[in-house]
Write a structure and sequence with these properties.
Elements: E1 2-10, E2 21-28, E3 31-32, E4 36-37, E5 50-57, E6 64-72, E7 80-88, E8 95-104, E9 108-113, H1 127-143, E10 146-147, E11 156-157, H2 173-198, H3 219-227, H4 231-240, E12 248-249, H5 261-264, H6 274-280, E13 283-287, E14 298-299, E15 302-303, E16 310-316, E17 320-327, E18 338-339, H7 345-386, H8 392-397, H9 404-415, H10 421-425, H11 431-443, H12 451-458, H13 467-490, H14 494-498, H15 501-514, H16 530-552, H17 555-559, H18 582-588, H19 592-606, H20 626-650
Antiparallel strand pairs: 1-5, 1-7, 2-3, 2-4, 2-6, 6-9, 7-8, 10-11, 12-13, 13-16, 14-15, 16-17, 17-18
Helix pairs in contact: 2-19, 7-11, 7-15, 7-16, 13-16, 13-20
Organism: Sparus aurata
GO cellular component, one term: cytoplasm
Pathway: Lipid metabolism
Length: about 675
């Protein structure tokens, strides 16, 4: 009689444990063990428990292939989350780990494999394991299906709401409770603020916004409230705010932006002019042409307003990056004047507000929603459909896809839906939001998702104090180095990767299904080299971690002081510089209700998540072999160097840039 010591680990989140019957069978190359009910004295399978059992077999099983877990109902249905199973072989010091990290729901049976990562080619020793791989993918492809949520944007998971998702990709109970509680908390504070203001003064001047600026606040938001009118701070946000990838070097002025050297001479440093600074590479441009003609939302029966500004900026040797000219439309005319810093102060201030209003739309819909959430969902669905759990690339990506499907489903139903929050308060809510996303998707390129190419193409590699650029490149190099190490570990040559039918099917799902109708996206027709695979995986991980943190985590900081980044504008852009008054500004900016909702939602979405797993932290150990663990440890050391560098760089700075501190970057898109 062979006796195997078996350890079973239950999940640590709320309701992970079960009081149902659990059975285990060990499957080896020479046969199966007895089907054994796991039942120790006292309670088994409590939350966080690691229970030990003995499983017998009448004869040696040979190499262990699978662990079969079965759950049967006892009185009432009680789901169970299994983290892993370990098996100590009889007469040996060998302990095998079988990662699970799955929910067992209903009367069900699952078979899990030993944790050593295996590509299809390296897994040809057992027909039974080959069949297990095939069956797993067939079941997953029935469960996870592509669907077109709207034309002209990436495909997504086929789920009308988060309730339609399998439990394995749902929020844990604590996450779900916190998400819903924090939203209710923010909306309750919103109601209290509106009530307090209703019994106070009317909404007359910019200082009135301070009356909703309590309880929910942050050091950067308070700094923003004090400095938002200053031109250098406007320029700083172009580089290090929530949309830091919009700014481009301007080599030649656009024909539809007729700025003359005389117009901006007063903004220039001594002994220089606009033409010289253009040649020197010190002139930059924000062009919101993508906003041109987007239909504006109607809120409570009142049409909102949208502009498509052009903004010229100058890297001043003493003052830093500053705006020097703004045109609030794409077609110059008498009714579309060019606003300048020397204009009446309120006119210049309102022009900057209009640029920041366009910034809100672009960063929320394009930089944040499309370029992180929707792009990463493509990788998520393809990975679940085409890679079995034993595949090294599945193991590599799984921690970076946690919760993404649920947060995206919630976004589609609660945020950007026909009756969602954007429709209630944002000027592009409704049809405009989708049109904006469709325009960006048409011109989306794979190259632009790689930060080193993005900075080069935008001509901003020499822009000083561009902390987002510096930190992004450091993180990209760390991520790409980690991914390359993993890829080379499991694919000794390019040919090995080319012949992996599963990875090629995964790639086709991404390129032909997920990113459909994108002839100019720029992906190759087939993965030919390990470097191509490493770059693609790095894009997925960078987008789900660093890029998402750069656009999401600071949104409350930059948007809490509503005049700095207004979510909507209630009056059209000014046509006469001399006619701008404070009354006009207040009538243009979001009203009390809209301002409160903007503060509440950006706090809810931008706050640090209580269950956040930082970049490089792997709470679920999908990789069990030593060489893979060495790559993970090396990655963590690189992240620690980046962490130390960023902290040292920010010492003593009144305005710190810490959004890309590795310890503050989540391992996946969870909010």
């Amino acid at each position: 009689m062979e006796v195997y010591n078996v350890t079973v680990a239950t999940g640590t989140s709320e309701y992970s444990g079960t009081n149902n019957y659990i059975f285990v069978t060990l499957v080896g190359e020479k046969g199966e063990s007895e089907r054994t009910i796991l039942d120790n004295p006292g309670l088994d399978f409590c939350r966080g428990a690691v229970d030990q059992y003995k499983v017998t077999s009448p004869s040696p099983l040979g190499s262990l292939l699978l662990v079969r877990l079965e759950k049967q109902r006892y009185w009432v249905e009680d789901n169970w989350f299994c983290r892993y199973v370990t098996v100590e072989l009889p007469g040996e010091d060998t302990v095998l780990t079988f990662p699970c990290y799955r929910w067992l729901i209903g009367d069900t049976k699952v078979e899990i494999r030993e944790g050593t990562a295996k590509t299809l080619a390296s897994d040809d020793s057992s027909p039974q394991l080959q069949a297990h791989r095939k069956t797993e993918l067939q079941e997953r492809q029935k469960t996870y299906r592509w669907v077109t949520w709207a034309p002209g944007i990436p495909k997504c998971i086929d789920a009308k709401t988060e309730a339609d998702l399998p439990q394995d990709v749902r929020f844990d109970n604590e996450k779900r409770s916190d998400f819903e509680h924090s939203l209710h908390y923010a909306l309750l504070e919103l109601s209290l603020k509106k009530l307090a203001i209703r019994f106070g003064k009317s909404w007359n001047d910019l200082d009135d916004f301070k009356r909703i600026f309590w309880k929910l606040r942050s050091p950067i938001a308070e700094y923003c409230m004090e400095h938002w009118k200053e031109d250098w701070f406007f320029g700083y946000q172009c580089m290090n705010g929530s949309n830091p990838r919009m700014i481009k070097r301007c080599k030649k002025l656009p024909e539809n932006f007729p700025v003359t050297p005389n117009m901006v001479q007063s903004s220039m440093a001594p002994r220089t002019d606009l033409d010289k600074e253009l040649k020197a590479g010190n002139i930059y441009l924000l062009d919101y042409v993508i906003m041109d003609g987007v239909p504006a939302n109607t809120i409570k029966g009142k049409l909102q307003h949208i502009a498509a500004p052009l903004c010229l900026l100058y890297q001043h040797p003493d003052e830093g990056l500053i705006p020097i000219a703004i045109q609030l439309g794409q077609i110059p005319s008498l009714d579309t004047p060019i606003f300048l810093p020397k204009d009446p102060p309120l006119a210049w201030l309102l022009a900057k507000m209009w640029v920041r209003h366009s910034e809100f739309q672009v960063f929320q819909v394009l930089s944040h929603l499309l370029r992180t959430h929707l792009v990463v969902e493509v990788f998520c669905v393809a990975t679940l459909r085409q890679l079995p759990a034993v595949h090294p690339i599945y193991k590599l990506l799984a921690p970076h896809l946690r919760y993404t499907l649920e947060i995206n489903c919630r976004g589609r139903t609660q945020l950007i839906s026909a009756n969602g929050i954007f429709k209630r308060v944002v000027s592009t809510g409704g049809d405009g939001l989708l049109i904006l996303a469709q325009r960006e998707y048409k011109v989306l390129t794979y190259r632009s998702l790689q930060p080193h190419n993005d900075f080069t193409d935008r001509g901003v590699s020499q822009l000083p104090k561009y902390f987002y650029r510096e930190h992004s490149l450091m993180l990209w190099e760390a991520i790409h180095g980690f991914v390359s190490g993993m890829v080379n570990l499991y694919y000794p040559s390019d040919r090995d990767m080319q012949e992996d039918l599963e990875i090629q099917a995964w790639f086709r799902d991404i390129s032909e299904e997920g990113f459909t109708e994108l002839p100019n996206f720029g992906l190759p027709s087939k993965l030919n080299t390990r470097e191509e695979l490493s770059t693609l995986l790095s894009v997925a991980i960078f987008s789900s971690t660093s890029q998402h943190a750069a656009t999401n985590n600071g949104q409350f900081d930059w948007c809490a002081w509503v005049p700095n980044t207004p979510c909507t504008m209630r009056r059209p852009p000014p046509t006469d510089k001399d006619a701008v008054t404070m009354e006009m500004i207040m009538a243009t900016l979001p009203d009390i209700s809209q301002s409160c909702i903007q503060m509440a939602i950006t706090w809810h979405l931008g706050r640090a998540q209580p269950d956040a797993i930082p970049l490089g932290t792997y709470t679920e150990e999908h990789f069990t072999e030593g060489k893979a663990q060495e790559q993970i440890d090396k990655f963590r050391r690189e992240l620690k160097k980046i962490e130390d560098h960023i902290l040292k760089q920010n010492e003593g700075l009144e305005l710190q840039y810490l959004f890309l501190l590795p310890s503050r970057i989540e391992n996946s898109i969870t909010i």
